[in-house]
Every structure is written in C-alpha cells, then in structure tokens.
Specification:
The protein has 9 helices and 8 strands. With 212 residues, the chain is of the alpha/beta class. The protein has an 8-stranded parallel barrel, surrounded by 5 helices. Strand 2, helix 2 and strand 3 form a beta-alpha-beta unit. Helix 1 runs parallel beside helix 2. It is globular, with a radius of gyration of 16 Å. The relative contact order is 0.16. The structure holds thiamin phosphate (TPS). The site of thiamin phosphate has 24 residues, from strand 5, strand 7, strand 8 and helix 8.
C-alpha cells in the first residue's frame, strides 16, 4: 500500500496484553474500527504478550477485521509476521535493530519509526524509505513499561520544526490534552489507553472523531 499521511489522524494501537482477554481485545478493536479509527497498529509486546502461533492466529483475525473496515494495518516490530499476514506497514522503535536493514526488509510495506529526542531524530534523519515518525511519549504514560521521559508539547513542537516526515504524536494522550496536540498541526494522534481503558469504547471513539 502506498502511504498516505491522512491515515495517521486517529491511529489506534493495541495488543492482547493491554486488555483482560482475547475476546475483549476483539470487542474493542471491532468497536474502534466501526466508529472511525484511521489506522490500527497490532502491538503484541511486554508482560503477557502472545508469541509464536498464538500471536500469528490473533494477527490473522486482525488482518481480516481491518480489511473489512478498509483500515490500514501496521505491525509493531515483527517483519516476518507482517509479510505473512500481508500487513500494510511496520512500526519500529529506536531499539528494534538497524533501521536501514529494517526498511529494506519491509519491501512493499510502509515504515514508521519512534522518535523521542532530537538525538533519536538525527539517528534516522536521511534514511530513505521511512514514511512517518511516531513522536513521544508526549505526556507520562502507564502503558509502556520502558517508556522514555515525556517530552511535552514543547518537545513535540521542536521535533515538528526539524522534521519533514509526517508525524503522529503518542503517549499519555487523553481527552484532557488531545486538543492541544492537534493544535500543534501534526498529522495525527496515536493512543492505547484513551480507547482501551475507556468506560464506553464507542463513545470514546466517537468523541475522538469529533475532536480531530
Ligand atoms: C506510532 N510508544 C510510545 S509511547 C507508547 C508507545 C507504544 C504508549 C502509548 O500508550 N509511536 C507509534 N507506535 C508506537 N508503538 C510507539 C510510538 C511507542 P498510551 O496511549 O496509553 O499512553
């Protein structure tokens, strides 16, 4: 799939480790797709994450569901899985191996890379084949155990000022601060807990659509 930055607008990230069980995972994902997320990242990582055949089985169902709703599917840091299930893109962290080799191995799929600091940005600057950067954490997040210190709106504005890549902001984004994020003029917002921990997932996604 050719990359269009419009898909970054409402970018939902989820793995089974973020929720109670697999059935809740698919309930939340289906609701999010139905009410208007524009991209989905399957991120099976951290304590309680599935591996091997189990991860593959869930990923296949995720592929079918995202196709049904015409929403692009991005796989976090798993190139073989992404190829196997014909994902649209792959997302990498700064510690997920060599970015030039990763980009090469993603032939046909688009590529996103996480950036926290200016040093991270300079590490990937000039690498061709990167389609967007995920900038954050913007605010404190409880969802990623090994998260870097938050960079705040100032940090986001700074990376935006030096980057030619489309930007999706992530980390600690909630109803309380999402307007400030969009106001910076970045392409989109990525969230886990704003949706996965909402009392009412449908309302949360509808609200997101109205605020974006
Ligand atoms: C597009 N990342 C940075 S903060 C965070 C994650 C997973 C936790 C967000 O949870 N950019 C993209 N994808 C990624 N996986 C990352 C960065 C890494 P919450 O919204 O609950 O704070």
């Amino acid at each position: 799939m050719t990359f269009n930055p419009i898909i970054l607008r409402r970018y939902f990230v989820l793995g089974t480790q973020n929720v109670e069980n697999e059935s809740q995972f698919f309930d939340i994902l289906t609701t999010a797709l139905k009410y208007g997320i524009t991209a989905f990242q399957y991120r099976e990582k951290g304590d309680g994450a599935l591996k091997g055949a189990e991860k593959y089985r869930v990923a296949e169902r995720v592929r079918d569901l995202t196709r049904q709703y015409h929403v692009p599917l991005i796989i976090d840091d798993d190139i073989p899985l992404a190829h196997q299930i014909h994902a649209d893109g792959v997302h990498f962290g700064q510690k997920d191996g060599n970015i030039i080799e990763n980009v090469r191995a993603c032939n046909g799929m688009f590529v996103g890379v996480s950036v926290t600091t200016q040093a991270d940005f300079h590490r990937v600057q000039g690498v061709s084949g990167i389609d967007y950067i995920g900038v954050g954490p913007i605010f404190a997040t409880k969802t990623k155990a090994d998260a870097n210190p938050p960079i705040g709106l100032e940090g986001l504005r700074h990376i935006k000022s030096i980057s030619d890549w489309p930007i999706v902001a992530i980390g600690g984004i909630s109803n309380q601060n999402i307007d400030d994020i969009y106001a910076t003029g970045i392409n989109g917002v990525a969230v886990i807990s704003m949706i996965s921990a909402a009392d009412n997932v449908a309302d949360a996604v509808i609200n997101w659509q109205q605020n974006s």
